[in-house]
Amino acid sequence: MPLLVALSLARLTDRRPRLLRLVQGSALVLAVGAAAVALAPDVWGVAVGTVVVGVGHLLFTITGQAAIARYSRDDDLDLGFGWFTASYSVGQALGPLIGGALVGAGSVEAAGRLADIDLALWAGVGLALLALPALLVPLGALPTARRSPGTENQVAARAPVGQILGVRGVGSAMFASMALLATMDIVIAFLPVVGERAGVSPVVVGWLLAVRGAAGFVSRVMLPFLSRRLSRRSLLTTSVLGAGLSLSVAPVLIRDPLLAGLLLAVGGFFLGLGQPLTMTMISTRVPIRWRSQALAVRLMGNRIGQVAFPLLAGLVVAPLGPAGAIWLTCAVLVVSGTEQLLRRDGP
Fold first, then answer.
1. pLDDT (tens digit, 9 = 90+) per residue, 225-261?
2. Nearest Cα residue to 336 out of 175, 170, 166
3. With contact defined as beta carbons under 8 Å apart, do 298 and 279 qualify?
4. Which of 289, 308, 239, 249 is nearest to 85 (CA)?
5. Rg (CA), the chain
6. How far apart are CA 327 and CA 324, in angstroms?
7. Which residue blocks in 198-256 are alpha helix, DSSP H?
8. pTM of the full structure
């Protein structure tokens, strides 16, 4: 459901001279959705609340990306998108910890457990509302220096998906983004199964995944430093190839926690680089008036990949085992990296 409105939300942000109300509204929608789930009397209420949460998350992601693309100079996009995605990583790490602590601290009875889940949801409501003061910083209209110069003023504000994908380099960056995110999901889902088959403790596997996540956060923080020394094209090529090669070996060596941890740290570092890089590369490829829409199309592609790749992974798990799912996405990363190496359309 949220994906169906992604492009419409992006077009709305492109039409708005100011984004403050949309950013604030996204926090409110998240809070309302979490409250609706907590108060839901039945499964239909939970479904409706979950859709509202999804729309709120999507609205915040789109408006946040749009704000960075709108107010940052092209040279500063890596800084903005790097910290934006790094902040997401922190939230995705702290959220389960806070929720798990609240849920795990209560009764083990079914009724008590449901009450604890409601408490965790209300904590989410509170955190979303606490974000509002930080969102009171005024965001002005599009600065004159960032307005579309020359012929870009004649570019239509509404861009069809096919036209966005037809811009040179955009489809390639979107494919890399989809492959990177799908690989991250597959590793998180299948590495515990690989570890179980190999007799590795779940605690060890948990630490290995934590190392991967921490390395991804570090790479996103370091992105501005790296992009000043290497071209974005070189960084993205290194990202997809480095992640694909290192993560493909990790399942084979999972019985050795040190080697597996090193490979996952390397793979996690490269996985973390790719997402903000593709945001920047897509933003700088399309006309300024299309940036929000292009980033929304990228987001839609990511979500499609998150659905399609697990289905494809299921086809290789039977003959190759759970490691086959990881190898499949790593092979796609290598294909993406090879395409980046062979493509000749600028940096």
1. 998 888 999 999 999 999 999 999 999 999 999 999 9
2. 175
3. yes
4. 239
5. 21
6. 5
7. 202-227, 232-249
8. 0.79
